[in-house]
Design a protein that fits this description.
Length: about 425
């Protein structure tokens, strides 16, 4: 069940932004994503060749409202629930893996922006509610100055940096005692330049390039210490701008789930392409005319379908659980613990494992023609292979850390 935010007028005396379509429903949002699958599949080649999401695709995403799914209604968004976000991202990735990646890793970040100061959120959403921002953790250097920081450096893997309105970038604050504190900064689009260092065997169409800043000024209110992303915020909601509990839980589960929703969609798209392949007469012709009549291929298809369905079911369950943990923390004071967070992350990582096993099986059994340079099935395989290299997908690191927390021991790392 979706959680409904308190009316924005009750949260602050300042004005608020009306969403473009006030009566839009989650069901219609999902239908729009499903309706785009065909045209997105047709654009895959052009997207990969361009090395970035296509302008016409981005314009259609904006018009459909996809960037506003979990954006606060207070700021012109639709404030739909987390499972709706996951479903839309998966449907888009099913049509075009790279476009789905860019959308998910920009459209989900209003949940991250919620930890920033009220003023930072007013700055980010402006007067029209347009907000698209990659979030990258590799640190730049922040030097404290009066009223804020002077920041220089760069952020690799900034997916969607070319279509963004902002960027949420990591930075190390240099303290007087010589130590450093990791922070995250809200950066305006006109404050960074883009260096094209993204040359990959997969995910080339995501345009995950390097964003560079040189001696820019970031005011205090647009900076937060990294720890605020990892912990529960205060339960006292009396003076909070955003009242929906969805914005007040731990962030790692949601942050990682953005990518997992894309992985599940990529696998589902691979299954679509595999089915099309099985319906075509192969060379040499088999008995019955097509491979879909053969038990061997029926088994391949059935196994892959089961693994993908299982991954999607687990993903949606995590989405519902995440909403409930946020609600229980805000409304009932039941702690949203680090152990709980990592338990969900571990499930998400195994969703990707299942999606990969399904896609690998489909690619391996589709025939040699599936490995052609222009094969869409090969593209789904390549993109998912690269997606799995993301550091957040390493379940063999998360599993012992989860167990250590469960047994009362400190974790060995942040994931």
């Amino acid at each position: 069940m979706a959680l409904t935010a308190t009316k924005p007028e009750a949260a602050t005396g300042r004005g608020f932004i009306s969403p473009p379509e006030p009566d839009l429903t989650p069901e219609e949002m999902i239908r729009r994503a499903q309706a785009m699958r065909g045209v997105l599949r047709e654009r895959q080649d052009a997207c990969e060749a361009s090395g970035a999401i296509l302008p016409e695709t981005n314009a259609e995403f904006i018009k459909a409202g996809f960037y506003r799914i979990v954006q606060p209604r207070r700021f012109g968004g639709y404030e739909f629930d987390v499972p709706t976000f996951f479903k839309v991202m998966s449907e888009i990735a099913r049509g075009c893996p790279s476009s789905g990646w860019v959308l998910a890793l920009t459209a989900g970040h209003p949940v991250m922006l919620a930890v920033y100061s009220d003023q930072a959120q007013f700055d980010a959403y402006g007067t029209d509610g347009e907000f698209r921002a990659p979030a990258v953790g590799s640190p730049a250097t922040a030097i404290p100055v009066e009223g804020g920081y002077r920041v220089s450096g760069g952020w690799d893997y900034a997916s969607g940096c070319d279509v963004a309105t902002h960027l949420l970038g990591g930075a190390d604050r240099k303290n007087p005692d010589g130590s450093s504190t990791h922070m995250h900064l809200l950066v305006e689009r006109d404050q960074y330049t883009i260096v094209n260092n993204w040359h990959m065997v997969g995910m080339q169409g995501t345009g995950s390039r390097r964003a560079v800043v040189e001696n820019i000024f970031i005011p205090d209110h647009r900076a937060v210490d990294w720890t605020i992303w990892m912990d529960n915020p205060p339960r006292d909601m009396a003076n909070r701008l955003l009242r929906n509990p969805m914005y007040h839980g731990r962030k790692p589960t949601f942050f990682i789930a953005e990518a997992v929703a894309v992985a599940v969609g990529i696998a589902r798209g691979a299954l679509d392409l595999y089915e099309d392949t099985l319906k075509k007469p192969p060379r040499p012709v088999v008995a019955g005319g097509t491979r879909m009549a053969l038990q061997e291929y029926q088994e391949y298809y059935g196994l892959a379908r089961a693994w993908i369905d299982t991954a999607e079911g687990a993903l949606m369950s995590v989405g519902r659980d995440y909403m409930e943990h946020c609600r229980r923390w805000v409304e009932d004071g039941v702690a949203f613990t680090d152990e709980t967070d990592r338990a969900m992350v571990l499930v998400l990582q195994h969703c990707v494992k299942l999606a990969w096993e399904a896609t690998d099986l489909l690619f391996t059994t589709a025939g040699t023609s599936g490995g052609k340079r222009d094969s869409k099935l090969a593209r789904h395989f390549r993109v998912l292979a690269v997606l799995r290299t993301h550091g957040t997908m390493r379940y063999m690191r998360t599993a012992p850390n989860f167990a250590r927390l469960h047994f009362g021991l400190p974790p060995l790392g942040p994931l």
